[in-house]
Design goal:
- It is a single chain.
- By secondary structure, the protein is of the alpha+beta class.
- It has one helix at residues 6-29, and strands at 39-47, 51-58, 84-86, 89-95, 102-104, 114-119, 129-137, 140-148.
- The strands form two sheets. The protein has a four-stranded antiparallel β-sheet, with no helix packed on it. The chain has a four-stranded antiparallel β-sheet with strand order 3-4-7-8, with no helix packed on it.
- Strand 7 and strand 8 (140-148) form a beta hairpin.
């Protein structure tokens, strides 16, 4: 039995080395990593005991039109348990009772920047309530729980 010739062995080793180097380059350059799309929850809190605020970050590569378009704020009022399309995001207050009344601090929300979603209907004076929200953009949903003391 004969072994493979030295020339063929060198060619095989060069091909294997080039394949490993190409794979390493693709991995380092991010070709194998999936870009996160959607929104990310930054913070959720209650202001003045009555207004729930949810701070989120745009993790998309495009602007999010947040409850309006053309730089104007329009607002969005879904019923509890029913999602509402507020621009390019869907907002749903899962619990807390009453009618949600969503507002925001600006539109559009550029990639990598944060924006605030406000719900002035989470609770009323004299009642304590925890409102749970689901916000969806590009198929990715985040949930936030906000206790308000009323």
């Amino acid at each position: 039995m004969k072994g493979i010739s030295g020339v063929i062995a060198v060619i095989l080793m060069l091909m294997i080395t080039m394949a490993l180097a190409g794979s390493a380059y693709l991995f380092i350059s991010g070709a194998f990593s999936r870009q996160t799309q959607g929104i990310e929850l930054v913070d959720a809190f209650c202001v003045g005991g009555l207004e729930a605020r949810i701070l989120f970050r745009n993790a998309e590569t495009n602007d999010i039109t947040f409850v309006g378009s053309g730089g104007t704020f329009l607002g969005c009022t879904p019923t509890t348990g029913s999602p509402a399309t507020c621009g390019s995001i869907s907002v749903n207050r899962l619990s807390g009772g009453g009618t949600a009344s969503f507002g925001g601090d600006r539109t559009p929300v550029a990639p990598g920047t944060t924006a605030t979603l406000r719900d002035t209907g989470c609770t009323t004076a004299g009642t304590t309530r925890t409102c749970i929200y689901r916000i969806t953009s590009s198929g990715r949903a985040v949930e936030a729980s906000v206790p308000c003391t009323g």
